[in-house]
Amino acid sequence: MLKAYKYRIYPTKEQEEYFAKVYGYVRFIYNKMLHDKIEHYKETGEMLNNTPAQYKKEFPFLKEVDSLALANAQLNLEKAYVSHVMVTWGKEQPFERG
């Protein structure tokens, strides 16, 4: 039997600002990594394996937020990208139980 718990949080103003910053940076890194993957594929015909750590030198503001949030953006991008490629190339999508 699966159980789920729901919690309501009441963040302070500082926490709300931090969450907004994290969401914005995650959205930024997702879009930047996707753009770079597409451009690299157009130029070379090969898939690019990029990580958020590679962008921290170019965009130092990414160091302000938790690296796990950025890593999850990478995982979400990889999952979406692989699913898109499988559909585009006519292969079935992997079935996940969960």
Assembly form of the protein: single chain
Major sheet size, sense and barrel closure: none
Number of strands: 0
Q: Globular, elongated, flat, extended or rod-shaped: what is the shape?
A: flat
In short:
This protein is mainly alpha-helical and 98 residues long.
Write up what this structure looks like.
The two termini are 12 Å apart. This protein is mostly helical. The protein has helices at residues 13-44, 67-88. It has a domain at 29-88. Helix 1 (13-44) runs parallel beside helix 2.
Question: Main traits of this protein?
Answer:
55% helix, Transposase putative helix-turn-helix domain-containing protein, Transposase_put_HTH, 0% strand, mainly alpha, 98 residues
Give the SSE map.
Blueprint lengths: L12 H32 L22 H22 L10
Organism: Thermotalea metallivorans
Protein name: Transposase putative helix-turn-helix domain-containing protein
InterPro entries: Transposase_put_HTH (IPR021027)
